[in-house]
Structure formats: structure tokens, C-alpha cells
Write a structure and sequence with these properties.
Mean pLDDT: 90
Radius of gyration: 24 Å
Number of helices: 3
Bound molecules: zinc ion
Low-confidence stretches: none
Number of domains: 1
Structural class: alpha+beta
Amino acid sequence: MSFILQHRYCRECGGGLKGRKDQKFCNDYCRNRFNNRKNRIELAGQRKVNQILLKNKKIIAHMLLKEKKRKIRELDLFKEGFNFLYHTHLKKTKNGRTYIFCYEFGYIQLADEYLILVHWDNFKFK
Ligand SMILES: [Zn+2]
């Protein structure tokens, strides 16, 4: 066994470990610190994605208002700050077209750089 393998170190503080072979931390304090930091980083990432999705949703909601659907230019959504990389789910129709949703608001891309905005509740999928 090499020197590196014989000497194991705490993933939090880097202190040497002398316990069981599967030991990763010197104590509960180090384990908690490590896991709390990991969770904070994960939560921050989730919050960032949620903010983008909520912004996307609000942009479509604002453009739709009380209409059931509306045809707009792709550029108009982009100008409002819509992020086309993020969505919550897709809805495929029987004829193979795909609606892209951010929560209950979505859109479908048309061939000519236009979009149709829709609301999940008000739109009947064919
Ligand atoms: Zn430690």
C-alpha cells in the first residue's frame, strides 16, 4: 500500500484520519460543516434557476393577460428578458408539436420566428 493510501484526511479540515477505512471526517462537527456548505451551494443554484423560471413565467403571463393565446415575435419575448434555455416541462401534441412551459405558461415556436403563447388551463391540446 502506498503512502498516499495509508494516510487519509478529513474532507472538511484536512486533518489526518485514523479511524475506520470508510471514515471521511474527523468528527460530527467537520461532517456537519461540510454538509451544510454543500447544501448551501445546492440551494443557491436552485434559487438561481427558480428565479429565471419565475421571470420567464411572469413575462408570458404579462404578455398574455386575459387572452387564451397570442401570437408574438420571438424577439419580443427575448427583449423582455426571457431566457429560452430554461423551462419546467414540455407538452407534446398528437401531431408531434411541442409546447414549452414555464409553470402554467408556455409557448410553441413557429417556423417564421414567431411564437404562440398559451396558458396551460385555457389551452386545449389537439
Ligand atoms: Zn476535520
